[in-house]
Amino acid sequence: PSPNHEKHVIWSLFCVYAQEVCGYPLSIFFIVVNEFCERFSYYGMRAVLVLYFRYFLRFDDDLATSIYHTFVALCYLTPILGAVVADSWLGKFKTIIYLSIVYAIGQVVMAVSAIHDITDTDRDGTPDNLTLHIVLSMVGLLLIALGTGGIKPCVAAFGGDQFQDHQAKQRSTFFSVFYLCINGGSLLSTIITPILRGQECGIHSQQKCYPLAFGVPAALMVVALVVFIIGSGMYHKTEPQGNIMLDVCKCIGFAIKNRFRHRSSSYPKRTHWMDWAEEKYEKLLIAQIKMVLKVLFLYIPLPMFWTLFDQKGSRWTLQATTMDGNFVRTLSFLTVNPILILTLVPIMDSVVYPLIKKCGLNFTPLKRMTVGMFLAAMAFVAAALVQIQIDKTLPTFPSSSQSQLKLLNMGSVPLTVTLPNNDPFVIEAAKVNHLEEVLLGIHITKPDCIGRSLTQTLMSTQRISKSFKCVFSQFCLHYKTHKHRFPKHLLLLISRATFTITNGANTCEYSREFGFGSSYTLLIPSHFCSESISGIEDIQPNSFHMGWQIPQYFLITCGEVVFSVTGLEFSYSQAPSNMKAVLQAGWLFTVAIGNFIVLIVAEIAQIEEQWAEFVLFASLLVAVCVIFSIMAYFYTYMDPAEIEAQFRDKGGKEESDKEELQMQKKDFVDHHNEDDEAKQTKM
């Protein structure tokens, strides 16, 4: 052989070896890295999304919660669209590429929408045109929902396509690593993006850095897309074979239509309403659809679990803003979930479930799911108890039918104040007095020398929450001068602040500790460098520590491990071989419905007390848990492979009978022809 031929053989062997590493296709490493970056992008953006709604776009708690859960619901509705496009039109590879581009554009739009300098014409750090920011953010979220949901059913399946039949063990390990990447990306992103959000950035004024918090996930999504494209030449790409979901829908539609046509009592009844599709579809397909419908019927109560579960990213985050802590600590609680998942999944599989089995208890998958739902309900009971304790620390604000009068004595001597139908009272020097439901017409007894030292402020009659005025990581400071200027409101980002005070001639510094969630009024005298500055605490700091949220996070994560992982396993085991994707789409659909339920409760119920809303959700899930346990009791487990084999055997037997009948007819014809030939020979 020539030297060129030897080089060609060596290069071919190298290429074959390079296609696999340790028995795994090299292409899956690109898919795993892509999934890690994509999950980092998604969960990183979602970690600060509610706070972005609440404190940048100025939505109230209910609207922020509603928009958040609408977005999550769309993320779990679009997988159906992605599966249809991939299976019947573009194929998995092209679907992932095209929708990842849409995904990356959405993340970039979200980062741009958070730049306050775009509309901050007066350079005070506050956007002057919130409408533009709202429109950009909604467009970005819509593109993200389309992208992340569309590729969700494709990436894992595309990774499984890279393995050959003899690599079943490697394929199983791949899915475990794939799930690990999902939680790894979630864990890191929920730690990093809150820290990025806590930085200060801006062109003209320094504010919370939402552009950075959204920009880094956008960059990670671009990296995910580039990595996936780099491995393009190594992928095994299957052509679209048609969508089984469409066949299922058509078969069900024909059965319903045919049953309606033959609704008269003159037609004989059939065992199952799907049997009315036998005139057009194969019995095997009908049997497979029956198995799917049997499982989908059990899915009906499941959305209520996701209704509670996904509120850990909305209501529970807002709850933490009224507790003692800082921004990084609050968002770090979101990392508890992926950490506990990575810890509890192997513990459950290796220790808890085998131990229960050794005790002789039949802990079936449906029983596990029931326990998971109950644990989620208990998590919300714990959240309600925490909320009750938080409410005790919140200040009392006037209701919609009340007003509040704030009397502030900025002088150096006490003042005596007389109100109609009230006894006179004294306001000490540098003190404040809060009164509710009072009538104007105040008589004040004071020395002439401090005639300009009294400030009267009528507070808003609207009920506000403590977290609306001061975020847990921010502090409200009322800066008043002795010349009756309008108070200056400052948002402080640290627990201790140092102020530089100057009047042009003199400059002094003032330093003070501030509590999280508190509000202070500082009284600055005219000779502030020689006289002391007085501070009045209008609202006390948050005093209930965030550590009390740990039990509810632990319970909800235990519920997720027992419910979600078991539910996926149950759905896979009870699904026909060609309809795994159908049940996967149905499972994701329950997540979307659960988020829509949150919207309904948040917008329609309008419950004043947050703890009562938590109790309501817990009660609903307990009721659903009872219903699901009854449904599970009457459920009969199936072996889809055995049922399919029976129908294939029947089909094969019928084909054999037809072939045998054809052979008999042929033998009869041949024998008849031989007799005719014999007669002709004799003649």
Automatic annotation (TrEMBL):
Transmembrane segments: 16-33, 40-57, 63-84, 96-118, 130-151, 172-192, 212-235, 291-309, 329-348, 369-390, 581-602, 614-635
Function noted in UniProt: Electrogenic proton-coupled amino-acid transporter that transports oligopeptides of 2 to 4 amino acids with a preference for dipeptides. Transports neutral and monovalently charged peptides with a proton to peptide stoichiometry of 1:1 or 2:1. Primarily responsible for the absorption of dietary di- and tripeptides from the small intestinal lumen. Mediates transepithelial transport of muramyl and N-formylated bacterial dipeptides contributing to recognition of pathogenic bacteria by the mucosal immune system.
PANTHER family: OLIGOPEPTIDE TRANSPORTER-RELATED
Subcellular location: Apical cell membrane; Cell membrane; Membrane
Domain of life: Eukaryota
Native source species: Hucho hucho
Region Disordered, annotated ranges: 648-683
UniProt cross-references to CDD domains, sorted A to Z: MFS_SLC15A1 (cd17412)
Catalysed reaction equations from the record: L-alanyl-L-prolylglycine(out) + H(+)(out) = L-alanyl-L-prolylglycine(in) + H(+)(in); glycylglycyl-L-isoleucine(out) + H(+)(out) = glycylglycyl-L-isoleucine(in) + H(+)(in); N-acetyl-D-muramoyl-L-alanyl-D-isoglutamine(out) + 2 H(+)(out) = N-acetyl-D-muramoyl-L-alanyl-D-isoglutamine(in) + 2 H(+)(in); carnosine(out) + H(+)(out) = carnosine(in) + H(+)(in)
UniProt protein name: Solute carrier family 15 member 1
